[in-house]
Amino acid sequence: MKMTIPCGVVIFLCLYKRARFWHTSTSEKMYPTMRRDVFKRAFLGVAVAVSCILIAGGCQSVPKPKGPQPQVVKSFRVYSPSGLERAYAGMATADQSTNLAFKVAGQVVAFDVSEGEYITKGRIVAEINPRDYQLAYDAAKSAYAASKSALERAQRLLERQAVSQSELESAQNNYASALAAYRNAADVLGDTRLRTPISGIVEKKYVDTYQRVSAGQVIVRIVDPKTHTAKFTMPESGIALLENPQTQFSVMFDSYPDIRFGARLKDWVRTSADGTGVPVSLAIEPRVGYEISPGMACTVIVTAPLTSGEVVVPLTAVWTDTKDSSPRLWLIDGGRVRAIRVELGPLYGSDMVVVTRGLSVGMEIVSAGVYKLSDGQRVAIING
């Protein structure tokens, strides 16, 4: 029974008291000619009518539900995606790059390039003081000229039999030695000028003008400003993915967040020198209108095919049985739920997990509200 009956009684008493008050005060002031019993009957009639309506409405009873009500849950239809995606942080690296160094030691007297400047192949990047090497070249050139003259003279004298064959051979050996020294001195003198073997951007200068450098010391780095290579580190647990020919790769750059570039495996090193993982290089498929430069941050997406029978479910659908700590799911069957034991695999994205055993494509499971259920309980599904 609703609580409307006592409320109707209260309203009746209030209206009755109000009627008496208005009857004794207002009616006498505003309507002195009316009789008091007229007002009394009118207000009493209104009060009784209102109270009867409320009491009649309160006499209606509300049917009580029979048995426990279904638990409201959200459901998920199990499916198997085309592949298992894993994401790794990567970076675009130069297709061509070189660290330039002098082959000879000396003092840098010219270094006429700036960091960030684009230079073409063959341009002189830096020079070292050639004085000592010029002197050595001049001496070698003179020795070469003298040995050449001595050889020509010995050949003429041999025709007249004025010298022996051994003297001619000695002149030939002196000439060959002088020629080699002359050519080497010319090469060394040429090495005082450093030229770039590729066209590219001056990424870094490591020395300053008038600084003395040793042979082989890197003084500048040149990189090609356009690239189609990306590198990332694969954990050792993912080596099997690299060996699987069905594994697919794609790359997404922070600069182009809505574009996914196709890629193929270029090379990788099986060993991990520092224990952080396996270095992997990918060849990125070029796309018209999108330029990729070395140093651009990217996300490498590795898509591995799922084994037959593997499916994915939301992480929120998985719960743990307190008896054996095994992962379980609530399977919806005929409006009721029953617990099933499953085996889990790796994560799929950020909010899904792979189920390797215990579930099939098309099954419907509870995805939200799993901790409010019991085996065999009726459920009402609301999705959206």
Structural class: alpha+beta
Q: Average pLDDT across residues?
A: 83
Strand order of the largest sheet: 2-11-14-13-12-15
What is the gyration radius calculated from CA atoms? 47 Å
Total beta strands: 23
> What is the distance, rounded to the nearest whole angstrom, between the alpha carbons of the first and last residues?
37 Å
- Beta-strand content bin: 25-35%
Instruction: Using the 3D structure, state the CATH architecture of the largest domain.
Output: Beta Barrel
The level 1 CATH classification of the largest domain is: Mainly Beta
In one word, what is the shape? rod-shaped
The number of domains: 4
Q: Give the name of the CATH superfamily of the largest domain.
A: RNA polymerase II/Efflux pump adaptor protein, barrel-sandwich hybrid domain
Major sheet characteristics: 6 strands, antiparallel, barrel
Low-confidence stretches: 1-5, 25-36
Order of helices and strands: HHHEEEEEEHHEEEEEHEEEEEEEEEEEE
Helix share of residues? 25-40%
| Alpha plus pi helix count | 6
CATH topology description of the largest domain: OB fold (Dihydrolipoamide Acetyltransferase, E2P)
